[in-house]
Amino acid sequence: MKEFNIKGTGVAMVTPFDKQGNVDLTSFGKLINHCIEGGCDYLVCLGTTSEYPTLSQKEMFAVKEFTIECVENRVPIVLGMGGNDTRELINKITKYDYTNIAAILSVAPFYNKPNQKGLYTHFSQVANSSPVPVIIYNVPGRTGSNLNAETTLQLAEECNNIIGIKEASGNMNQCMEILRCKPKGFNVISGEDALTVPLMSVGAKGVISVTANAFPKQVSDMVNYCLKDNFKKAIPIHNALLPFTNAIFEEGNPVGIKSALKTLGITNNVVRLPLTEASKSLSNKIQSIINDIK
């Protein structure tokens, strides 16, 4: 089994589209280089921020292959691999080529609202079928069901291939219980930018960040300070980024971050329906905040 260290800053990459709504690989290349040059530790391709439910199989393959080609082994690549049909997801996992893929990030099943037994069985089967390490992703605000601490810890203890969790429940008590009881080698990663520093202060090892699409250096510096227990330097960066982080989620993700990336001259501000681009008021707000950060 290929080892992968999920400590540090991962970027939940957007998928840029051109003005006609087609996948824009030129802009994607700019974004990839921007994130790597900003010091991020790994990239997450085709996660939930990528709008993957609106991408065709052909487009997803093109995005994956382009990411590998553009990254050129400079940082590890984590591939988003989730779904709400366990059998179909496992079929997909077993047929994929994982050359140059360090791990998969698998979001909890959405819409079905499974109970804890269903969540445990789903993720254990995903882990058993994956030839690379698995990071499980708990985001009840999007999926409709919460992977609780007890189930997370059971998966961590019993599935050697599950190396960590991206925790985006926003429930600090739940996160702290996982951190308190987790086995060695299992890491908790913040799934919410605004909670990265608080979670790292109690033992989390990094973040998979939306904010880092726009500000990779600032997020990476903040996380690295936390990893060195230098919260005196991390907290001012957290405070400087907080208005931006809050703003980009006001009208949904990746609506806000794509507006920011347009302001920064990296990608177009184009999303696919049912999402719509950021309102003028939000775009102006984000632009003003970016000017303050710069």
Topology:
Blueprint: E1 8-12, H1 25-37, E2 42-45, H2 57-71, E3 77-80, H3 86-95, E4 103-107, H4 116-129, E5 134-138, H5 140-143, H6 149-158, E6 162-167, H7 172-181, E7 187-190, H8 196-201, E8 206-209, H9 216-227, H10 231-248, H11 255-263, H12 280-293
Describe this structure as you would to a colleague.
With 294 residues, this protein is an alpha/beta fold. The chain has helices at residues 25-37, 57-71, 86-95, 116-129, 140-143, 149-158, 172-181, 196-201, 216-227, 231-248, 255-263, 280-293, and strands at residues 8-12, 42-45, 77-80, 103-107, 134-138, 162-167, 187-190, 206-209. Helix 1 links the parallel strand 1 and strand 2. Helix 3 (86-95) runs parallel beside helix 4 (116-129), helix 9 packs antiparallel against helix 10 (231-248) and helix 10 (231-248) packs antiparallel against helix 12. The chain is globular.
Shape label: globular
| Number of helical elements | 12
Helix content: 40-55%
Structure class: alpha/beta
Can you tell me the residue ranges where pLDDT is under 50 for at least 5 consecutive residues?
A: none
Label this structure with key terms:
294 residues, 12 helices, TIM Barrel, alpha/beta
Compose a concise summary of this entry.
By secondary structure, the protein is of the alpha/beta class.
